[in-house]
Automatic annotation (TrEMBL), chains A, B:
Name of the protein: PadR family transcriptional regulator
Superkingdom of origin organism: Bacteria
UniProt lineage: Bacteria, Bacillati, Bacillota, Bacilli, Bacillales
Domain Transcription regulator PadR N-terminal, first and last residues per copy: 7-82
InterPro entries referenced in this protein's UniProt entry, alphabetically: Metal_resp_DNA-bind_regulator (IPR052509), Tscrpt_reg_PadR_N (IPR005149), WH-like_DNA-bd_sf (IPR036388), WH_DNA-bd_sf (IPR036390)
DNA sequence: GCCACCCTATTCAAATTTGAATATAATAAC
DNA sequence: GTTATTATATTCAAATTTGAATAGGGTGGC
């Protein structure tokens, strides 16, 4: 879904060929916010083209490279774009953190190895928090507030994750994952 | 991936047939933590059976219902289970919030409709926060700390999301999403 | 007693995602 | 100067996910 929205949103600004869309997305850090895979993008473009949300307006051939097909958003596409955004906000689809299940089952694995990996994750998470904040700050003069909200939201989500991982790491070091009956130390 | 881990983790406790696995997962609220779809589960079970991680140990037929095939985890499955958990923790796969892209593009849509939907989301988020906390508290005497960490983590993630949505909602009401150059009001 | 809905248990086709393959040019590294 | 990596642009087969179809039995409401 995000991929369709991103394509429509960018084609709203100007006509592009699919590869060019990926370049713009990377330039705007959209690839940090959603999964961007070439195969999926080309699929989405084909699909939307069949469905009349976008249309090919030009094909540029050159001897050495594959043809570039330039797409433009249609009126139908513009309507669907708005609908999709609202629908997606209404939908309330849950966020499943990819660590929930592994961690819930983590008491079954070697606690030494687990501790080592969690330590690495904590370090990465610290890095991510700083990076996310920096990206937010740098973009204050550059982008509309709608985008700032996403950047600051990402910072806060990263910060929450960091606190979570640290608390968990402490428990692994103390070898407490299998304990029952006591609440977590949630003040730190 | 989560689905495989969940199946292996449960088969570690006792042999079950696929449908039974879904019942246990729901009973333990695992379906709140990962996407649980029958089709995917049956696919994963087939795949793991082919790969020798689990094996069919019994088929129970009855006249009125489809046959139940009961699976058991193999030694290979036990090894892979540990590997998968550690691998998944190491992998550091990013979390893409399904609202990031829609919200980043939200300045293009009708701000009245947007405000209404965001208000609904804020209400739902408040409900989710309370529910998540309640689930954590209720389970303190019941489950190992590894599981509590996941439950409390979910509570904190929900809380972070709530704050994020509220801030965004205020900006939509003030019709500021397209403004540029001022930092967000991040103290509230 | 009947209607509507939920439970049991699995399968399937169709949609979508993934990851690699393709082929050439430009740039960087040593 | 040669080698390795990165950038250009797209396609494809294979893996996986999705959502609906199947089909009989139980249960609650009126």
């Amino acid at each position: 879904m995000s991929i369709k929205l991103a394509v429509l949103g960018l084609l709203l600004e100007r006509n592009m060929h699919p590869y060019e869309i990926t370049l713009v997305m990377k330039d705007r850090r959209m690839d940090k916010i959603m999964k961007l895979q070439m195969g999926s993008l080309y699929y989405a473009v084909d699909k939307m083209s069949q469905d009349g949300l976008i249309e090919a307006v030009e094909v540029i051939s050159s001897k050495d490279r594959p043809d570039k097909t330039i797409y433009s958003i249609t009126d139908k596409g513009k309507n669907i774009f708005e609908q999709l955004i609202l629908q997606q906000i209404k939908k309330n689809e849950p966020v499943f953190h990819p660590l929930y299940i592994p961690l819930a089952l983590s008491r079954y694995v070697d606690q030494g190895k687990l501790a080592e990996l969690l330590n690495e994750r904590v370090l990465k998470a610290e890095h991510d928090v700083n990076l996310a904040y920096q990206i937010y700050e740098e973009h204050i003069p550059l982008v509309p507030r709608s985008v700032l909200h996403v950047m600051y939201g990402r910072y806060e989500h990263c910060l929450t994750e960091l606190k979570w991982l640290k608390r968990l790491y402490a428990d692994v070091l103390a070898n407490k994952l299998s304990d029952t009956g006591t609440p977590l130390d949630t003040e730190a």
